[in-house]
Amino acid sequence: RAMRTRDQPCPGCATHAAFARSQLNTQRTIAMLRAGQFAALNRYYARVQADYDRGSISDEDLRSAFRHFYDSSPDLAVHYAAWVKSMPNSYVAHLTRAIYYLRVGQMSRGDKFIADTSKTQLDGMDAAFATASSELEKSLPLEQKPLLSVFYQLDIGKFEGDAAFNQALYQRSLTIDPRNFIVREM
What we know:
By secondary structure, the chain is mainly alpha-helical.
């Protein structure tokens, strides 16, 4: 894959002033989502994905750009559903809805020991993770290098503790991008 030089801008990096000004940030991304600007969001993030597919940006830069969807505010659920409904064949729409529900599940679970976590919290996590997993499965055939889909499925897998499934996801990530860092790091 092509290596990015120090002077090349990348999504998620603010090192190049002109690129940083043109880049979406979390606030603007979420504002556009709430405003129903799905086509514009889809174009922007599909372009980021295409940059990764071509080797113009690293997997770390790809992940960084999609972190703009980590906001788990309850009001966003209807907007993600509307985006997927309006663009059912969009990799970006399914992936971002999955990211949202992954974060919702993590927030529901909380950060306490399992003994200090209520059944309601765990049920909320399971329901959110089921939606996220479904969206990730839908996203896979829509993209030639769906590394983020595998990455976020592995994130769910860490909570569920299925070592064989997680190993299979790791191996799948290597077929997508043998030099990926983000899945190895996870």
